[in-house]
Amino acid sequence: MLFAIYCIDKADTTAAREKHLKEHREYLDKYVDKIFFSGPLQTDDASASIGSLFIVNVKDKAEAQAYIENETFYQNGIFDKVTITRMRKGRFRADLVDAV
User: Fold this and answer.
1) CB under 8 Å to 35, separation ≥6 — which residues?
2) How buried is 13 (Cβ within 10 angstroms: 0-12 exposed, 13-18 middle, 19+ buried)?
3) Is it the case that residue 100 has pLDDT exceeding 50?
4) How far is it, in rounded angstroms, from Cα 14 to Cα 32?
5) Phi and psi at residue 3, in whole multiples of 5°?
6) pLDDT band for position 3 (50/70/90)?
7) Is 84 a member of any domain?
8) Residue 13 in domain
């Protein structure tokens, strides 16, 4: 089942994100078979990241919770708030990703 994991960063964590970015990407690579979608949340002008969104395909909410609790940014105190919500795939248009 799909779970959306919506993470909002603490203020002033840009340097910490950069410091842990390589390790963060390595963590994501280990879960490539479970990540339906992931990406940074950004300010309206795209000048800074303000959080992360992960949509993971896991067996239950406990597995989604374990996924995020072991994630690099989470473990290094970058996230201020994390929300995990079960979801189901509705419409999906991969061709629109780079259209805008």
Assistant:
1) 28, 54, 55, 56, 57
2) buried
3) no
4) 25
5) -130, 135
6) very high
7) yes
8) yes
What pTM, to 2 d.p., does this model score? 0.91
Dump pLDDT digits (tens) for 28-80: 999 999 999 999 999 999 999 999 999 999 999 999 999 999 999 999 999 99
Element (H, E) at 43: none
* Domain carrying residue 56: 2-88
Following CA atoms 92, 96, 98, 100 in sequence, which dihedral angle do they give, to the nearest 10 degrees?
-130
Identify whether 24 is part of a domain. yes
Whether the Cβ atoms of residue 53 and residue 36 lie closer than 8 Å to each other? no
Q: The domain that contains 79 carries what CATH number?
A: 3.30.70.1060
